[in-house]
Design brief:
Layout: E1 2-4, E2 9-11, E3 21-25, H1 33-45, E4 49-53, E5 58-60, E6 66-68, E7 83-86, H2 99-110, E8 114-118, H3 122-127, E9 135-136, H4 145-151, E10 155-156, E11 161-164, E12 167-170, H5 176-189
Parallel strand pairs: 3-4, 3-7, 7-8, 8-12, 9-10
Antiparallel strand pairs: 1-2, 5-6, 11-12
Helix pairs in contact: 1-5
């Protein structure tokens, strides 16, 4: 059965168990709701199990959209997921010093699992040396990302969605469907 508009169709397999799992990482405050709600909806339509987490049990957006997490980042075993998605906005940069996330991101890259980041979150990947020699896109609000990418051995590309092997990055709200679709397609091909 196909679900979706002419812009995006997702094949839903009704006889299969949920096999793929995604861990979505949110900042504890001021995460970008669009960057969480839309991809999560597409993942669930594709019958992918989605778990959200953060450094606190509740993540709050400025419009008071709350996401409750059953577990903190430190409680998850990195082996239990097929992909990790870092939800963006400026406050996602607060997670840059989180060693659990740094270890998870590096484990996923080395294990050829999907690492995806939205908006400002790719900056964390650069700081964690996850994007070495990979193409990456970003939200360049301070006109500094290209320099930062080159300094951290990444290849900056000014596109909405960039897929380089198991690294998927995105920076523009109008392309959130393309971001979710790229992750789903990559999961279905693994």
């Amino acid at each position: 059965m196909l679900i979706g508009s002419t812009r995006l169709q997702i094949e839903v397999k009704s006889n299969k168990k949920i096999m793929k799992r995604i861990l979505m990482v949110l900042a504890p405050r001021e995460f970008r709701d669009l960057e969480y709600i839309v991809p999560r909806s597409f993942f669930e339509l594709a019958q992918i199990d989605v778990i959200s987490t953060s450094t606190e049990y509740i993540s709050v957006w400025r419009f008071w959209y709350n996401v409750k997490h059953n577990w903190l980042i430190s409680d998850y075993k990195k082996e239990n997921f097929d992909a990790i998605v870092f939800v963006g906005w400026v406050w996602s940069l607060e997670l840059v010093n989180n060693q659990d996330l740094e270890q998870m991101a590096n484990f996923y890259m080395q294990s050829w699992k999907i690492v995806a980041a939205i908006c400002a979150a790719p900056r964390n990947l650069l700081s964690w040396w996850v994007a070495n020699w990979k193409k990456i896109t970003w939200n360049n609000w301070d006109n500094n990302f290209e320099k930062l990418a080159i300094e951290n051995w990444a290849i900056p590309e000014m596109k909405w969605v960039v897929v380089d092997s198991n690294l998927i990055t995105w920076y523009w709200p109008e392309s959130v469907e393309s971001f979710a679709r790229a992750i789903i397609e990559r999961l279905n091909n693994n």
